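Record pair follows.
FIRST:
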Amino acid sequence: MEHGDGTADLDINWDDVRVFLLVARLSSFRAASIESGVSVNALRRRIEALEHKINAVLLTRSAKGVELTEEGRKVEETAQAMLEQARALARLSSKSKRGLRATVRVGATEGLGAFWLVPRLVDLFERAPGIQVDFRNEMRVPDVSGLEVDIAVQLERPADEGLKVVRLGWLHIVLFASADYISRHGIIETSQDIPRHRFIEINAPQIQSGALKEELPEDDSRSFVALRVNTASAQVLAATHGAGVTALPTYAQLVTHKLHHVAREFSLKRDIWLCYHPDIVEFRHMRQAIDWIKSSFDQEKYPWFGERFLSPEEIDHLAAKRGLGTLFSGFRDEHKL
């Protein structure tokens, strides 16, 4: 189809363009798959669809990974310009209009989003009564560069040097099981006992299952994994109902007292990153959302996000002493889990 100006209506899919830019930036389908949480085959199909629309080969394989063709470099340059224009439009659309709420799109892992930030949204609404929050709780890394979200809280540091990246703190991971599971299958004294128990594994982007495997006994063949899930909610519900042992953040007992800390010598540590495009701070509602997220991980108030390890028992004691348990009353009602 031709327009009056002689240009073809290519009906380009913006998601295909974002995938192309990601692969081009990382020079690797595998690295792009890890960062995006989308399979390599799905990424290849996106690129092929874009190449079909443009009628040109954009990427070639090489010993170094993936390289742009001459046409690919031209498309990358044009796509980057499109992205900058899209950002400019997004900034315009973010401006508060009379009678409308100013929207901020926040992306976070399900655990940090649903079980930590969402229960504290009332704090943001009180600070910014005219704000609207579009919350995206997913395990894959949200695409801040491609405007999928305005602000992201994630466990993987982004590779895009154009983003503002702030360390919010650390996530300490330990092992938990329900009282019912322990009564039926025995006390789990150390991580050496884990292969003899049913293990609940969360298999999703940003979750370093390999690190957990390295910390467990050397003869472990992962044959003890009884259940694999891809969401934190399924993981928590399975564990609270006695399906097995699982790895969760140390503050899990603030979510439900049905979970008990086991194999107490075991722990892992992950970084927590706040990511956003620096241009968004010119908008008051974006600054308010960023400040709210930072305060939600304030290590003075919530020391379990500090670099020093605090056991779940210490956390529960601190939370009770500081009156923080009410933040999670909806989750801690045992009849609702």
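SECOND:
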Amino acid sequence: MAEIKLTKTELRTQQIKLDRLQKYLPTLQLKKAMLQVEVLEAHAQVEALLKDFAIVTERVEKFAPLMTDRRISDLFAAVKIDHIETAHENIAGVDIPNFEHVVFEPAGYSLFDTPVWFESAISGVKALIIVREKIRVTEEKRNALEKELRDVSIRVNLFEKILIPRAQQNIKKIKIFLGDQQLAAVSQAKVAKKKILLRMSGGKK
């Protein structure tokens, strides 16, 4: 840490710096609190989606014995993902993805040339894929929020534990020095005045 100058100019600089830090700290603290809430909510969303995934998986597993059917390749072709649509929003200054829906490739099978269970199996597998993608996007959201929360927490700690205390200590140090200088100047002035008065009265030191 560089040695500060013990001057009135430096005192003013440190006071301005402290004022700015103290004004900005509440904004950082508010952002941290908002992010903490959002992170907790994202964790809850992921947990809920994992439970949904387990439920849908159990439903789809009922079709497992039928997966040896010669037309199983048609089923896999019917659940191919074209793309995932997401929307983005800004939360506490962070760009966050939100799941919209899964767009599947057009199915090319014939309803009249497939087993009775085929449509139900496709519906179940699609539901499983949708929940899986919801989990993936929500985890991205949670991770982005957690990273921002870590960064903001570091800044809050920096302000609270280092920058503000350091500015306060610098101000105190400069004030003490300037106060001592002022006392010394007053003492010197009194001595000088006394000498002048003695000379004027013809006295000796």
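COMMENT: The chain has three helices and two strands.
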